[in-house]
Amino acid sequence: SLNCVEWSLLPPATDEMVAQAEQLKGRFQGDPSFEYTYTEINAEDAERLFEDGKKPMIKEESRLVATIEQIDRAVGIIPRGAFVKTPLGSVRENRHFEGLSLTEAKKLSSYFHFTKPVNLKKKTLLEKADLDPSTDFLDSLEHDIPQGSWAVQLEKGGTVVVLRSLLWLGLTFYHVPMTKQYGYIYFGTGEKNLDLPFML
């Protein structure tokens, strides 16, 4: 929206848009039609991204779509048990989910990335033996790299658990233990904190 009254949907992100947006640095301009130029890009990346030899422009609207997709992939999370995998392989919202206990809600292992698992496939059979295939079918936050990229805090006298991403500053996830209430929101600059490994 340009006037906060009339709103339109963003187009879906493509892998090409995400790859191009990853090459850009700096903050957003606030104008969806603004065109970025690729100033600091090496020859190998240029050849991979732009096969015809020309360096096309990327509009801010496309960069915004790609950044939202990157944030959802990296830090879109759910509590353990909120979704279940059926024996046929489909994933559904768990109607019987009543929230995590306060003890479980304070552990990073109780939260999963809501994307296709990557690290789970690398686990050995011995590591998978303790997992419940109906609830533990996603990647846990406890194995995120770098270690320490999540801050867990208790708010409102311990009645709300809040997770904050130190990789995408501005991403906040909340869960009210023993209830179905959870969610996340992002209020940030759209820039990944690439200095995080040096800060930990």
Topology of this structure?
Elements: H1 15-22, E1 35-36, H2 43-49, E2 58-59, H3 60-75, E3 77-79, E4 83-85, E5 91-93, H4 102-105, E6 111-113, H5 125-128, E7 150-155, E8 160-165, E9 171-175, E10 182-186, H6 196-199
Helix pairs in contact: 1-3
Describe the structure in your own words.
Keywords: Cell projection, Cilium, Cilium biogenesis/degradation, Cytoplasm, Cytoskeleton, Flagellum. Belongs to the flagellar radial spoke RSP9 family. It is found in: Cell projection, Kinocilium; Cytoplasm, Cytoskeleton, Flagellum axoneme. The longest helix has 16 residues, at 60-75. It is built from 6 helices and 10 strands, in the order αβαβαβββαβαββββα. The chain has helices at residues 15-22, 43-49, 60-75, 102-105, 125-128, 196-199; strands at residues 35-36, 58-59, 77-79, 83-85, 91-93, 111-113, 150-155, 160-165, 171-175, 182-186. The radius of gyration is 19 Å and the shape is globular. Strand 7 and strand 8 (160-165) form a beta hairpin. Helix 1 crosses helix 3. The mean pLDDT is 83. The protein has 2 domains: 15-74, no CATH class; 77-198, no CATH class. Helices cover 22% and strands 19% of the residues. 18% of the residues are buried. With 200 residues, it is α+β, with helices and mostly antiparallel strands. Strands 7-8-9-10 form a 4-stranded antiparallel beta sheet, with no helix packed on it.
